[in-house]
Structure formats: C-alpha cells, structure tokens
Amino acid sequence: MPGTSRDLTRLRTAITAFFALDGFLFAGWVVRIPAIKHQTGASAGDLGLALLGVSAGAVLTMTLTGRLCRRYGSHQVTVVCAVLLSLSVALPPLTHSVLALGAVLLIFGAAYGGINVAFNSAAVDLVTALRRPIMPSFHAAFSLGGMVGAGLGGLVAGALSPTLHLAGLAVVGLLVTAVAAPTLLRHEPPSAPTPAPSAPSAPSAPSAPEASRRPRGRTRGLVIVFGLIAGCTAYGEGAMADWGALHLEQDLDASSGVAALGYTCFALAMTIGRLSGTALLERLGHGRTVVAGGATAAAGMLLGSLAPSLWAALLGFAVTGLGLANLFPVAVERAGTLAGPSGVATASTFGYGGMLLGPPAIGFMADWLSLPVALTSVAVLAAIATLIGVATRRAVPN
Q1: Which of 40, 136, 253, 278 has the fewest CB atoms lying closer than 10 Å?
Q2: Distances 192 to 119, 160, 260 between C-alpha atoms, Å
Q3: Is the pTM of this model over 0.85?
Q4: Band (205; pLDDT cuts 50, 70, 90)
Q5: Residue 192 burial by CB count (10 A; 0-12/13-18/19+): exposed, middle or buried?
Q6: What does the alpha-carbon distance between residue 3 and residue 9 come to, in Å, rounded to a whole number?
Q7: What is the DSSP letter of 92?
Q8: What pLDDT is recorded for position 192?
Q9: Ramachandran class of 131: left when φ > 0, alpha when ψ lies in -120 to 50, beta otherwise
C-alpha cells in the first residue's frame, strides 16, 4: 500500500494517464465512424443499431466491473480493461457487415464501460487518501485526451485508412498501458490517513469506510441520487455533441465550419472548468459546486438554445460547458465515497444512460416542437441537478 507522498503522486500520474488514454481512444474511434459506415455499406438506421453495441456493452459491464473491483482490486481491473480497450479499438475497420460491426462494438463498449468504472474507483480511493478534491483533474485529462484524439483523427483521416489509423491507436494504447500499469500493479489502492485522536468531548468525523456503513437503504438511495446528477449532466453532453452544430446551422444560418465551433466551445469550456475544478471544490465544497454548476449550465443552455444570434448562442454553449464541467466528477466521487466501486458503477451507469437518452429524446422533441425548444431540456435537467444538489449538499461530508 502506498505510504509516501511520492507513491501517491506516481499513482495520480498513472491514473491520469488512463483517463487521458480512454478519451483519446474513444475520440479516435468516433471520428472514423463515417468511413466505417461506408465500408460496411450500412444505412443510417443500420449504423444506429450497430452503435447500440457500444452502449449495450458499456451498460452491461458497469455493474459487473464494480463487483470485479471489489474482488480483485480497481488497479488490476483498470489495467485489464485498458488492454481490452486498446485491442478492441482496432476491430471495427476489420468488419464488413453491420452484424459483425455490432458484435465488435459490443466488445469495445464492454471494455469502455469497464475501464470507466475501474479508474473512477481508483481515483476515488486516491482522493480519499489525499484528502483533496482532485477528481475533476482526472476528468479534465479525459477531456484533453478526447480533444487530442479527435484532432489527430481529423488530421490523418485523409492520409490513413481507418484500419491503419485505429491499429495505430491500439499500439499507442498498449504502449501507454505498458508504461502506466506497473505503478498501479505495484500498489494497493491507498486508504485514508488515520485522523489524529480527538478529545472525548469532540468525537472525530467518521472515516470513509465508517461513513460507508450507513443504513443500507439510505446509502443506496443517496447513490441513486448522485447517479441522477451524473445522468442529468451526461444528457447535456450527449445533446451538445449530437445536436449543437445542427442547431447553429439550421436555426441560426451558420456555415458548417462555424457550426462546428459550437461543440468546440462547449468542450473547451468544459475542459477549462475541470482543470480549475479542484480549486473550485476547495473553495466552495462539493454541495455548493453542484448548485453553482447546475445553475450556470441551466442559464447557459437557455441562452444557447433560444438566443437569436449566432455569437450569443456560442457564448451560451461555452457557459453550459463551464457549468456542467464538474457535476459528473463530483457525482461519481460522492457515490464512490458512499459505496465504493458499487457506487461508482451505479453513478456511471446512470450517467451513461443519460448520455444515451439525450440525443434521441431531443430528436423526438424537435419533431414535435422545434430543435431550440428541445434543447431547453438540457437546461431543465441542469436545473433538476441544481435542486438535487441543494437537497443533498449535507448528505456526504466534503
């Protein structure tokens, strides 16, 4: 078990590397979806069904991964899932039918869901040991990895086939895993430092393990509540990724190039928000950070969806990214503090469910009403996350 600040710093670096690798590999796959659609001859509907393999694999694996982390340790499971993710990202270009593509995406999704639960569990243990709210920094690494993966994919798309590109990503993934894995495998997850003895008249606060032994029903209920916050946040992320550019192009007459700036503004603002998340949490605490972030995101999305001008909408997208930035990391950390890997798995499953629900739900609402009105649902869910934050801000100690 790591006992020195140097060991904890090495663990933090290794876990950060896996977060960044996850974002890098996933973004690299996403930018090659159009080429793989053409390769398999899939219609839009067939491709949508195949892509459900990623979602199904992730959701089915997340609960199982929580159990595996409890049995074998989050560090070991992180390394195994990183290897599987790196290998499976190279498989989609090798398929030539929708059925085969769906099958390999099921494997890819399982590895993606598994590593998300495992490294979030490892991060929660490290946060507890350091007694510093550094969870947003890990998610910032994921965002940065995604931006690098997407940017690199755009640069090489015209020069490399999907097969060579994704095979290269697999090699990068295995190399990063080979470098970072020994640090995780050498050390058990750290535990919280033992608090100094207190006077009999002033009992100390319960440690993380003691706090997790609350009445089971109440603990489960709180974990679900934090999962709802994660789901509300991820709903907004999925909506912005799939519908933001279309809104700018269709409703505000932006060119395709300018419309692409919408998600860029959102993603960049979210990354900046996560990089500053530790300082924000140290200043405001978890509860007030959720309340402030949810309120900011709700206001930003109302501006982004209903603004009559392009630049006001872009500003709204950026404000939304800043507001949503730290809600998911805080929700996962709080759930993990309460219930360990099982809590992380539950919150992550809710979050992934929200990301899956967002794009189709907005599509249906856009058909019934209009796309700008449909996008206000992101603001509504951010407001709900704010209200949940108000109600639970004292449920788990900061």
Answers
A1: 253
A2: 18, 48, 44
A3: no
A4: very low
A5: middle
A6: 11
A7: G
A8: 57
A9: left
